[in-house]
Amino acid sequence: MGEEYDRGKEIKAFDETKAGVKGLVDVGITQIPRFFHKSIFDDIPYLRDLQFSIPIIDLKGLNDPIKIVNRVREASENGGFFQIINHSISKSVMEEMKEGVRRFFEQETKVKKAFYTRDSSKAVLYNTNGNLYTSPSADWRDTFTYRMAPNPPNLEELPHVCRDILVEYSKQVMKVGIFLFELISEALGLNPNHLYNMDCTEGQILFCHYYPPCPQPELTMGATKHSDMNFLTILLQDDIGGLQVLNDDNKWIDVSPQPGALVVNIGDLLQLITNDRFKSVEHRVLASHEGPRISIACFFAKYVNPTSKLYGPIKELLSENDPPKYRETTVQEYISYFSEKCNEGTKPLDRFKLTKKE
Asked: Fewest beta carbons less than 10 Å away: which of 15, 19, 67, 240?
């Protein structure tokens, strides 16, 4: 970096266009701005692992609830990622959701600008990288975010071009989420309603990502390596691919798109309350010449309206041989720390681990 390069000034100028990454592509750039270049934490020569694949769980085809619970337990313990099919959301709803997100991002910039903000307390917002000013490197994607629980926005606040499908999809994916928390509760040997009664589904926020084709994909990331700061994520992705999961051997496993499937992954807060029984693993999205890639991530965790509710390892899972590994925390405390430290190459969960003396 030469002294003539003012990173902060370049980021500010980009942000003030409110046109996002798509705006750069629209004007035909051939070299990406320097603040999109990979950080040291991503420019590591991991090898893609072709020997493993992400489990696909048929929620109806197995015809045996015990088998489904066992599959969920195995996937949650060993990799933290799995895909589900026959989950009750129709193909038409999933396709319309992806098309609705596409319509939002491909409408005129002057229309989208009305939603552009960095105020994360808003129920509806659009921007490029929520941590644009603090991250070592920016991700090559734009994001539209809307919060549907516990306090949904007024319908008029949602963009007209995709309003109906945003509401319908969020309702249907909430039902899937509640069912998954029942399966996960049973996989832990608990009452099916245990995690629901802990308010794990009280908060629902959806991140609608748009990854434009990148002229220099080798220099940047679609999404930097990270874990999710929630209880659970349900992801709808298109067929372009690029999502990868880091396994225990520091190798990347492709989460290959499957027709009609949703991707499910364990979040940090679920790893904390299960006392490391279920794993939240790091993942990333590669930038690509292809695109646009569209994905919709539904997060289950209450991010706003701070409460004093504490979450720690579930007492029913503890024993003399398996004492608590984490201290109790609120969702807001965890998210605040995550937001501060996730750019430093550290694992935020480690901050909440108990020492042997504790």
From this structure: 67
Residue with tokens 């015990």: 66
Please report which helix (H) or strand (E) contains residue 119, including its range: none
- In three-state secondary structure terms, 284 is strand
Q: What is the percent of the chain with per-residue pLDDT over 70, rounded to a whole number? A: 92
Per residue in 118-155, pLDDT (tens digit) is 998 899 999 999 999 998 899 999 999 999 999 999 99
Mean pLDDT of 331-343: 79
Residue that the structure tokens 């994909």 belong to: 217
Contacts of 46 (CB under 8 A, 6+ apart): 246, 250, 251, 252
Distance of CA 50 to the CA centre of its chain: 23
At residue 2, the pLDDT reads: 47
Q: Which amino acid is at 28?
A: G
- Taking the C-alpha atoms of residue 207 and residue 151, their distance in angstroms, rounded to an integer, is 16
> Among candidates 214, 219, 206, which has minimal Cα distance to 43?
219
What are the φ and ψ backbone dihedral angles of 317, each rounded to 5 degrees?
Answer: -95, -5
Angle, CA of 207, 48 and 282, to the nearest 5°: 40
Encoded amino acid at 115, one letter: F
Least confident range of 217-231, 256-270, 325-339: 325-339
CA angle 257, 88, 331 (to 5 degrees): 80
Element (H, E) at 148: strand 142-149
